[in-house]
């Protein structure tokens, strides 16, 4: 992930979404780059949107946080007006409309949305609002090919939440090892289930990194 969305600057990160039987797991590295400089090693790239959904960001920080703030405020307004939580499908549809309406001056960000609406759900979005529902796993950023290769080899149907967390963390770990723009002090992990959105603590994540 870059702190400058200028085209001449390299952008890099690895974000991952893994669909389990009872939960969806979102994970990301924590490194921000400015050209060839690691400008920050403790950056958050996974954000809670509401009690049933979260989002990962890969791209320019300014663009990404503008969209995340807008999604969070709209989800809160939706909840106040309708007395109901905005579903993951509604969030990705709203995001798609935002991105498509700015397609001539696009936000330089790719997103993954994970949520729970009776079952775990996982979506990806491109720069101009195209989106699709994912039935296994997905990844964005400069290290996505490395993460994809690992997940393709290791993923199995109906994963337990524990196994889904392990795969997501290890996929980011694999990318951190070989992709120079993926790194940072750790891996940020959010788990979304019927119980809501839970962020794993640093020690809990380290348990998966060490296995």
Task: Provide a brief overview of the structure.
With 211 residues, the chain is of the alpha+beta class. Helices cover 35% and strands 30% of the residues.
Please describe the structure with a list of short key phrases separated by commas or semicolons.
30% strand; globular; 5 helices; 12 strands; 211 residues; five-stranded antiparallel sheet; disordered N terminus; alpha+beta; Glutamine Phosphoribosylpyrophosphate, subunit 1, domain 1
Topology:
Blueprint: E1 15-19, E2 23-29, E3 32-34, E4 37-40, E5 46-50, E6 53-59, H1 61-82, H2 88-101, E7 109-116, E8 120-125, E9 131-133, E10 137-140, H3 144-154, H4 161-178, E11 187-193, E12 196-199, H5 202-209
Antiparallel strand pairs: 1-2, 1-10, 2-11, 3-4, 5-6, 6-7, 7-8, 8-9, 11-12
Helix pairs in contact: 3-4
Outline the structure in words:
This protein has 211 residues and is of the alpha+beta class. It has one domain: Glutamine Phosphoribosylpyrophosphate, subunit 1, domain 1 (4-Layer Sandwich), CATH 3.60.20.10. The protein is 35% helix and 30% strand. The chain is built from five helices and twelve strands. The chain has a five-stranded antiparallel β-sheet with strand order 10-1-2-11-12, covered by helices on one side. Strands 5-6-7-8-9 form a five-stranded antiparallel β-sheet, covered by helices on one side. Strand 3 and strand 4 form a beta hairpin. It is globular. The protein starts with 14 loop residues before the first strand and ends with a helix.
